[in-house]
Amino acid sequence: MGVTEKTAILVISFGTSYEETRKKTIEQIESDLHHAFPEYPLYRAWTSPRIRAKLQKRDGIHIMDIDEAMTQLKADGIRNVVVQPTYVITGFESDSMKEKVLAHKKDFDSVIICDSLMVTKQDKEEVCQAMAQEYHPDSDEILLFMGHGTEHVANELYPEMDELFKHFGYSNMHMGTVEGDFSIESFLDKLKNLHPAHIHLAPFMIVAGDHATNDMSGEDDDSWKSILEKEGYSVKCTLKGLGEIQAVRDIFIRHTRAGLDRLSEIQA
């Protein structure tokens, strides 16, 4: 068995219980990676126990966690694992993922963990341009993205992206988060000086799952849509995860290619 035959790609995602967005995002990322690197078998693992249990109970679908996937890779005779996470940032989820993956490192010749979506300056600029091309907001419209947010130091990426939008001339594109310091309440103060005719909300998350459906566009009083409408703004919502956007998926392909290149260098 040659090096290629002994190498596999493991795609690790948080997961989602929403079937429609799963097919358009996580499964589309996996499909693109499979077509980009058809010589390597592709495995899947999800990290959310709650979502995995829900899918098992509701749909009878079993999705491996990291430990199960690494055990399966070993059983299948794989010697080199290239891990591609589908996280947006390198936060707590990423830290936990790396710890769990590397706990199995002794079972393989090489374990390469590729970058999440946004790590380098190039990554951030490509995502910025992808968002502008995907949504191209009107001049009298505010486009507000909902990121997840975290207490992790990686949370600084969200205001960094907000500044990057402005740097590239997209003054009406803004970033907020569900958690952390960049809440919808803090954005309301900014809005008073912007006077937009419309506000367009879109998720800045790989999947358009629970946060996008409920926290962003839900009918409850505490959703972003409801809060903004209560302030008198005209609001529309787009339930489209980042994973639906080809330019975003292309970044994951680039990161996986870089991981495979690193593996080749190690084995040279």
Describe the protein's architecture and organization:
It is a single chain. The protein is α/β, with parallel strands linked by helices and 268 residues long. The protein has two domains: 7-118 and 245-267, 3-Layer(aba) Sandwich (Rossmann fold), CATH 3.40.50; 121-241, Rossmann fold. The protein is 46% helix and 16% strand. The protein contains eleven helices and eight strands. It has helices spanning 19-24, 26-36, 49-59, 66-75, 92-102, 121-135, 157-167, 184-194, 210-216, 224-230, 246-267; strands at residues 7-13, 42-46, 80-85, 110-113, 141-147, 173-177, 198-203, 235-237. The strands form two sheets. It has a four-stranded parallel β-sheet, with helices on both faces. The longest helix has 22 residues, at 246-267. The radius of gyration is 20 Å and the shape is globular. The two termini are 17 Å apart.
* Share in helix: 40-55%
Distance between the termini: 17 Å
**Number of distinct helices:** 11
- Rg of Cα set: 20 Å
What is the CATH top level name of the largest domain? Alpha Beta
Query: How many strands, which pairing sense, and closed or not: the largest β-sheet?
Result: 4 strands, parallel
**What's the architecture of the largest domain in CATH terms?**
3-Layer(aba) Sandwich
**Proportion in β-strands:** 15-25%
CATH-defined topology of the largest domain: Rossmann fold
Structural class of the secondary elements? alpha/beta
Global geometry: globular
